[in-house]
Amino acid sequence: MKEKPNKHKKQGISYLFLSILLVFCVLGAIVYTISREISQKMSEAAIQNVSESLNLLQCTIEAILHSEIEFQTLIAQELAGQEDPEEFIRSYEKNRMMSRVSLILSGKTEGLSSNGEIFTEEELDFSAGRTVEGLPVSQSYVNYMGAWAYTIKCPIERAGQEIGTLYAEYLYDAIDEFLPNGFYNKQATLYIMDAGSTRFVLKPKGMGQRDAGHLNLADFYQVNDIRDTGIMAEIAQCLESGKNVLYYHDILDEEALNYVWPVNGGTVFLVGYVPVAAIQREGQIVNQNILFVVFSMLAAFFLCILLYYFSWRQQEKIRKERERERNIHSQQLAEALRAAQVASESKTMFLSNMSHDIRTPMNAVLGFATLLAADAENPDKVREYTGKIMASGQHLLSLINDILDVSKIESGKVILNYEKFSLSEVIASVEAIIQPMAQTRKQEFHLERTDIRHDWLIGDETRINQILINLLSNAVKYTPEGGRIWLRMIGLKQRSSQYEHIRIEVEDNGYGMTPEYLEKIFDAFTRAENSTTNKVQGTGLGMAITKSIVELMGGAIEVFSEVDKGTLFRVDVELRIMEGQEAPEAGESGPEPEEDGSLEGLHFLAAEDNEINAEILEELLEIDGASCMVVENGRLAVECFQQAAEGEFDAILMDVQMPVMNGHDAARAIRALDRADAGSVPIIAMTANAFSEDEKAALAAGMDAHVPKPLDMRILKRVVRQYVKRKD
Amino acid sequence: MKRPVKKRLLGCMAVCLTAFLVLSIPGCKGEESPHNLISRTEENERVVSMFSPMEKSGENAKNVARSASDLTIMMAEEELGVTVTYQTYTAENYQEKSYDDVALERARNDMDDLYLLNPDTLLALGAEGKLADLSGLDSAKNLREIIRTANTVNGKLIAIPQEVVAYGLFVNVDLFKQYDLKMPETPEEFLECCRVFKENGIETPIGANRWWLETFVFAQAYADLYNGGSTEAEIAALNSGEAKYSDYMRPGFTFLQELIERGYIDAGKARVSEAIEAEGPDFLAGKTPIVMAYWGAANTETAYGKTDFEMQVIGFPSSRGQMPVMPMIGFGVGIDAEHKEDALRVLDIMTSDEALQVYSEKNRVISPSKNVKVDCVPALRPLNDRIEEGVYVLGSNAGMKMEQWGNTCQVVRQLLDGATVDECMAAFDELQAETLSEKPVE
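YS: structure for the whole thing
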């Protein structure tokens, strides 16, 4: 299933490339067609262009030839009028056009030249029969001046009778004077070729490369690598017929338009070539510019594609990143939802359990209270029922305490109270609690203590106690009768000399736990079994509280368990060693616990708005031989104390939450009274606000001690004894 | 934030300035009329016409020798602002006028301004007073003394070359090694080599043409005259008629006669063959072990510059060992040339040390300037070593009243045509008599 998007993506890219390729192919075809058409047009234009140029040159040379004929005819006419034509010839001076003139009178084979030499026609070759305006032209030759020349002969007629022949020798160099100084930007090569001998008789100035001096047509073919017999045959035919030939042939690897162009019907030929680049110079510049523009646009196009690609890749990267984040968020949300659902379920379960767990002892309390009312006359029954009511009440109290603990831990309000304590005492007190419980269930409880070097430590004794009690009471609960429970206090290697590294192991061979349950054992509101289906009582908060406390102390807790084999809890904590203590021997006792004091004869002022609680207090104090004056709120308490004689009350027991004036204000008011015992009379907070911050608030308001509700007479006695004694 | 704004401003200014410059360039063309679009630059074009030979070029190949000369001409054109136009002539066959014939006629009729002339033509024109005195040119001051002497006629320096032309024998070393032959020093050793080649199936060991066989004659004729310590006295004797050229020439002609008779030279072919054209292909193909040619042919791909075998250029056999033959060719300026002054200036630059350095480096030739020295190609070292030792004969010498290079060539042709050595010697005697009877042209 995952491959499908990739496949689609690849297909998409292929289609994109194919489309681009197609577009380029179409564009290429169009450009090719256009450029081919342009090339064809340019080629046609080049041919036309060269033809026109050659025609112009041809016409120029023909005009020269015609003017020569005209001039020669005039001389002939002049000669005809001369009495001594030979004298006229002798007097002729050569010029750059006509190098010499010669005369052979009719009937003679020898004549005279203007340079004074004897002249015969045998020196010249008129056999080819070429003429200009009907006058014979000789084959080209190198004359006495070392220059290529030709001779035209013209009859001299006097009175319609031919008296001789005038031979005029013309220099090819003279033609050069009338030709342009190069054509096609001096890149074209031009020779004037004698038709009969195919000798190159003139290379006009500025026409062609200076280092290429060709001898004749054969040399031209050879040097320029012209081997195409077809072309050569056509040229040969052209020489015969006097037609022109224009053909493409590369000269020195450069495309050139070669030509053989007759002048005067083939008396001489123009032979040479023009590089196509020279003809199409402007066109090529245009083409180059077009190409430049096309390539620039292509480059820009590909650059855009590249930029687009990079941008797309960047976007894709960001998109993927966001998608990944969204997935993580979704996952987190799903987990949170699941956790919330689990929590919700747990809390529902918890409420259900609590309902059951609270109702059960409540049922006992109410039930036994009913029985107590019925059997009030029977002291044995009364004692039995009250004992059971007490047990149920205690259980209810522990339930409430646990719930409050969890609430505090979850809201981060738990503060550890570091005080010195004796580990031995803690162990002893725990043993004192657990041993009877284990005995009740016929279980063996073993206590082991090894390698702990210091007994007096600093830490929250209450919480350590709580950890041990939680773990051990669980062990007792979840171990069947006759089972065994171990508490091991092991001293680990100290990481710091100031801290004792202690491992606490609580092991049992009880029911054990399933791996699934182990995963959530430390979650709040969970319990191995639903309390409605299990006879084991508990809030399910114990382990969560234990773990939180351990972690609050900077320690760690682990659990190992197998169903029907047992469970091992392992807690590692570091506790500060009390200074000045030299590793006391194990079992050394600390300060002796204070005994509960007697309340005999003491008279209290109690502020309590709840009548039942007030009654209970009065009764309990009365049982212990003390008396009590109860008022309903703080104001009355203040007034009562104010009106009482000094020392009348041994202590004031102050509820906190009361109408009219609360306990804190009342305490402050009493302390503020202007009487001698206002500052010294012990004020003991007695409230259901049982948290440590409540205690602090009470002390801050001027009270001396804090005793939580439900009232534990032992605690009250100890506190009263402490303050009354101090007062004494 | 201020910096980018400033930069942008500078950028805009730069663009504007560039645009202004580009637009203003057409306006700086000079004093052209704003309405007439025709350029006037060509109207005052100065032209110098140069007549020089043109070697036939190979297919699609540039003529290297001409290219080197071109470089110096371009230097002159650039410096003087003149245009040098080339005129050339090449005979199609032996029956036509030769380059020298045409050069003579053109010079006599002032057809061109600047001529590249062979020794005989040079001396002939010099004797006729048709060439301008070049001794006033700056470049003349740098000439080696031998060059100056060989080109001085009637006290006038009539030509300055761009290279010292030395003729030698171009030999196929591979073939010599194949037949275990040493490089010949004397005529006898040379004949022995030819015998061995002939016996081993090489029908004509020496490739010859109608122009350069005279070099064999000069080597034997003047080996002692130029290297014996009495050069001036011997030349004086010849000029006065006390000594006869025929006496000097006889051994060389006898030697040539022997080469012809033994079939080492194909006389029939040689007398109608143009230089390199006829014998070149067989030499390059390894069929002919020996040809004669000038120094530059060893550097020119169109001649013998690129062979498939090991080639060496050695001197001609003589009683004094291998003997280079050095005729003096050079550029002369027509005394009545239409553009004489420009031609002189062009020649001055073409033969300046700077130009000759370029020319010599390009062609790897011996420079006529005493200030320019260039290493030669390895094949030329044997010939170069002899020249550096001062051992050579001159193929032409303006100090000799009788022209050497052209006349000897003509007489050798008579030998090729079947004349005897005695007849050839008689021709020399006749030429010497004619020369001595001529009055010098002032």
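YS: worth flagging: The longest strand of chain A covers residues 566-577.
IM: good catch. Also The radius of gyration of chain A is 67 Å.
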